[in-house]
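pipeline/complex-builder :: batch 7 item 3
reading input block
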Amino acid sequence: MKNRIHVLRAERGWSQAQLAEIVGVSRNSINSIENGKFDPSLPLAFSIADAFGLRIEDVFLREDASSSRLA
Amino acid sequence: MKTRSPAARARLWTIVPVLLLAFGFVFAAPWLKSTVGPTTLALAAAALAVMVMGYANLVAYRYEAGLDEVQRAGASFATKWGTSAGQVAFVVLMMLPPVRDWAISTVTGLVGAADNGATAIAFIFFGFCGVVLLQTVGTLVVSVLWFKSKQ
């Protein structure tokens, strides 16, 4: 699953540690999610989206939207 | 004052008391053997093993309560594969003649070969300690590899 966390953080001038503190996870966990190495659970994904004041689909993107039958 | 991460605190609180107990037991073994006899020594070893296991479980429970979901996934993966790797490593090590001979001579030196029952309990105790130690090492190694792969 792709995401826009790096871009959104840069826009707000936040470090990974700052975002981690807002969301309530470790900096390494934010790094793993940001690099696409770990897909967060729905509650954590919602928390991250809430931290940016955006909807979840504005932060997290499907890897290959064309492969989804629902798309 | 320097603050430690939850993982570092857990390692410290796990390793230090366990090492103190283990070294204390090894150093006290000759005295225990001469005063209370090999059977009581072997039973004390078994009680120590149960205590260490319970303490390790308590620390692991407290440690896991402070983890987020990414860390918990890593810990779960490391426990699953690290414990299996530790068990296999113990069996492989015990198949190596130098390690096997060293283990036999150490245990018979501590308890004595005269009392078969006490020797058997001592072998079980040290075997248990060996498995747990290698499982811990295996879990730590797998944990480090997992977190490195996720960075």
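note: Chain A touches chain B through 14 residues (CB under 8 Å).
queue -> next item
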